[in-house]
Every structure is written in C-alpha cells, then in structure tokens.
Amino acid sequence: MKAIDIRNKYLKFFEKHNHKIIAGASLVPANDSSVLFTPAGMHPLTPYLLGEKHPEGTRVANYQKCVRTIDIDEVGDSHHLTCFEMMGNWSLGDYFKEESIKMSFDFLTQDLNLPIEKIFVTCFEGDSDCPKDEESANIWRQAGIPENHIYFFNKKENWWGPVGNTGPCGACTEIFYDTGKEKCNANCNPSCGCGKFIEIWNNVFMEFNKKEDGTYEELAQKNVDTGLGLERAAMTFQGKDNVFEIEIFKPIMDRLAAATKLTQGDRIIADQSHRIIADHLKAAMLLIVDGVTPSNIDQGYVLRRIIRRFIRHMRKAEIDVEILESLINEYIEVLEEMYPELVKRKTMILEVLLAEKKKFMKTLVNGEKEFNKAIIRIKEQNNEILDGETVFRLYETYGFPPEITEELAQEQGIKINMENFEKLYKEHQEKSRARS
Ligand code: ATP
Ligand code: MG
To answer: 74: CA distance to ligand 2 center in Å?
Structure first.
C-alpha cells in the first residue's frame, strides 16, 4: 500500500467509528505567533482541546502537513523528517483510553496488517504526582500485546503537557514498530534512539489539570489526542526499515544516487546527504505552496536555511546543482497524487527555488574558499573554535546561514563561536536600523 492509500484508509476507518473528517491547516499557523510552523496535528485544535466546542462535534480526525525545525539535525537517520504528515484522531470529551487504544490496535493490525510481534508499546510508570497508567497497559494486554512488549517510562517519555506552567496534561501511550534490526546493546528498548524500535503512533490522554501550586486535579472534560506519522506507517506496511525507502522518496533517492560523483568509499556520506536533500527539497516545496518565500526573518529565513542547506549537500555529495530543475519536476510528479497543490503552484515553486539557488551559488564557491582558509588558519593555531567574526563574514558576504558554517565546521572537528556571531549580528542589525 502506498502512503496515500494508508492516508485514505485511516480516514475511512475513523469515519466508520463516527469521526467527522476535518481539513488540515496551513503549514503556517493563522493568527498564532507561538510557533513558526504547524508542528503537529493537534496544534490547530488547541482551543477545542482547552474546552471550546468544536462545530463538528466530539469526534474528529484528519491529516496534517507538519514541519519541525527542531528535528532538522536528526534528518539522515532512519525515521526523522523536517516535513512529514501526521494523521490524527481526537476525542473532545468523548471516548477515552479504552476505545482509543482499541481503535489504534485494530487499525494497525487489521487495516495495516501489522503483526503483533512487531508492535511494542510504552506506558507511564507513575510518580509522586500521578499514578502508574495500569489502565492503558491492561487494555494493551487484553488486546493481545504480550507482557514483554509493554514498557513503562517516566514523564520524560510518556507524559504530555501542560504547554505552559499550568493547564491540561496527562499520560501518553506510544506505539513502536520493531524494524527487526539487532538490538544495539542488551538494554536496547523502545526509548533507545538507535533505530531498532521506531515510534509510529502516540496516544495522549489529557486527564489532569496542573494547577498554579504544582498539584494535579482531574479534568472535567477528558480528551484524547493522537498522532500517527504517515511516512513511518507506510514504512511499516511496506516492510522497510527507513522512511526514505517508501515510494514518495525512493525515486528521488535513486535519482540522487545515480547523480552523485562520489565513489563507493564515500557512499555513506553521499547517502546521508541524499536523505537531507530529499527531505529538505520536499519541505521547501510545500512551504512555498503555503505562501512562504525566502527572506531574512521568521518563516522565510527558515525556508532560506533549508534551501541553502540542501544545495550545500548537493555539492557535498558531488551532485551537479544544475539538475535541480529536473529534480523538482520529477519530485512534483511523484508527489502529485498526495499533494495536488504542488502541480498548481509548479511555476512558482520553480521560480522561487531556482532564484534562491542562483543567489546562493554566486557566493557559495567563494564562501567555501573563505571558509577553508579560515579552517587552515584555525588548525595551524591549534585552535578548536572558529571565531564569530569569520562566521559573521560568511553570513554577511557569502549568505552562509550560521547553521551551515557550523555544519561545515563540525565536519572538520571544529566548533563555532555562536555567541560572538550573535553579538555581531545584533550590532549589525541595530546599525542598519539606525540608517533606515
Ligand atoms: P520521535 O521520538 O521519534 O522524535 P516524537 O515523540 O517527537 O517522535 P510525536 O511528537 O509524538 O513524536 O508525534 C507523533 C507522531 O508523528 C510520531 O509517532 C511519528 O510517527 C510522527 N513524527 C514525529 N516526528 C516526526 C519526524 N521528525 N519525522 C517523521 N515522523 C515524525
Ligand atoms: Mg521528536
């Protein structure tokens, strides 16, 4: 089953269970300055989770494009993307743990044919504030999950919220897929990030209200908020151990593998870069569709960083950047069924991306030269930190976002003086403000 079929199956399944299917929101949240991008399916539903009445009732479900810049450095592992799709179902004071867990279990085992042997779950272990979530564990046991597939963890792993200091919060139960890889060590379990166990679905049970004095009281309206990652779900169904093998990335990954001039020995470096390029290019296209254009502030700056980063990785993997245009055309064809909006905005996507590429390429080669000179200097001085002045010059003159300089430096075992960069950056901003 392709990702789009899984998306459709999910919506059908929850429709059958009396959920109203609602539209996903834009990647750029409307009237909300708390985040730059929609990070989860629940984000646009916050007012309803806090008690406002939803016009569609107490059971809703949808799919939602998400961007998590916080995961940008994880991209390259088997299961993190900066841009992914989250499917979600919500109970707004309607069903709670039992029905929620049973529906998740049925969808995975029946609709997605996931064998029980491959499913691991985690529950909240309890602490002085709130009791152990035996209720969820018992529901899993009754569903047929064996005892040695049920793990208990503390608040760090199995607890959600509150968003600020007070408000709704509660235990969550997470569902993991066992990729079948070897355990990385004897204690390897679902909380380990090695890639043997991959989280696919998180069911949050908003059960408590955290009060000013730090104590917890039971909520009058208990909600359920779940998120199932589409790419990860497709990966499990297709029997792959990483998301880049599924059909929405594979053609692009193959194209990049054919285009790299790196030889066998450097293939690991190339593969890592291909994943970053495939993820970032898709993120950039979907952000442009939602109205973001490259700039030096806010969403536009993140988009600029993402574009410049994947271009840098094209060069790192020795891929001719001139293939970008045909790569975009091919990618849009691959994604067309899932995101028809890409086809409608194709001209704009090409215009924005090619213009940004041109801008960056003009200075990239010289910037890299400048960077290499600086690194030689640093190494000769037996120094391990690249000064803020150089980082700032690379930004100002060559358009290197500091994160790119940091990444380049990291590859040489050098750190950068971000603090000093930020100081210079602020001074520069103040000066230009005074001028204008
Ligand atoms: P992880 O620990 O793997 O980073 P998470 O705890 O951050 O996951 P949640 O915030 O609970 O994930 O999001 C719900 C679901 O969304 C996850 O179970 C997963 O399937 C999916 N998801 C989250 N982050 C990513 C990502 N960076 N790339 C792809 N899918 C993701
Ligand atoms: Mg995460």
So the answer is: 9
